[in-house]
Amino acid sequence: MHKTNEDACLCRVIHTGRIEKARQTSLQPDEHEKLANLFKAMGDTTRLKILLALSHEEMCVCDLAAFLGITESAVSHQLRMLRQLYLVANRREGPVLYYRLNDEHISRLIEIGLEHIRE
Amino acid sequence: MHKTNEDACLCRVIHTGRIEKARQTSLQPDEHEKLANLFKAMGDTTRLKILLALSHEEMCVCDLAAFLGITESAVSHQLRMLRQLYLVANRREGPVLYYRLNDEHISRLIEIGLEHIRE
DNA sequence: TTAATGTATGAGCATATACTCAGACAACAA
DNA sequence: TTGTTGTCTGAGTATATGCTCATACATTAA
User: Fold this and answer.
1) How far apart are alpha carbons A98 and A78 in whole angstroms?
2) If you measure CA to CA, which chain A residue comes closest to B32?
């Protein structure tokens, strides 16, 4: 018989020591969410392709839309999310916005991720 | 007026050279999806907390459920995903399954991710 | 001012996903 | 065998999310 409420669950724990240890080395309150949002932003093929493209050269919304074969609206929506999480930054040149990766962390994450999937 | 089909979109492109360049340095056909799945797996607070806990010490399903305050069923579902993507591995000791991180890539990704959100 | 171009945004919709619930499976003891 | 414990799994459901569409904003030129 398996209880599903939390109290009962705690009674079945085998290694309370490990749990205590894990609890002590935990992150700051909101860091879990921030970190998850970072990886979530990279966890979509469209956004990932955008990041990969920008890792070589800055590009505008038009370029990205043509490169990905999707509408500029869709690109713009995704760029907003990437902007808000500081994955990309932009600069304006007249009416055109050129997007680039915000810092080196992003390309390093992609590098290590590629190593992993190529095992 | 903004056309939404791809042909029209290509006509408005500003930098065809950049698109060509981005196209040449693209990944293998299925690598985009594999890489996105890796980051997507890390892009959820529950799974991220599991990975963080396992980065210190191997733990069983019971431990993780108590640590996270969720049901063992929910933990098991997430562990299956993490297993299938080679983020975690396990070993059996009698009826108990001990889970651990599959390789060093995962903790490195977390490290760099933390650097990023802490700017 | 008006018009054109590049980009951003909100609403709506279809799909994806994280959890719960119920039950099944696996290993071991009696 | 039966019972217990630890874990796994399929179905259902509520929420999240990625795109389209229509529209609005921003910059520049006429």
Assistant:
1) 15
2) A45
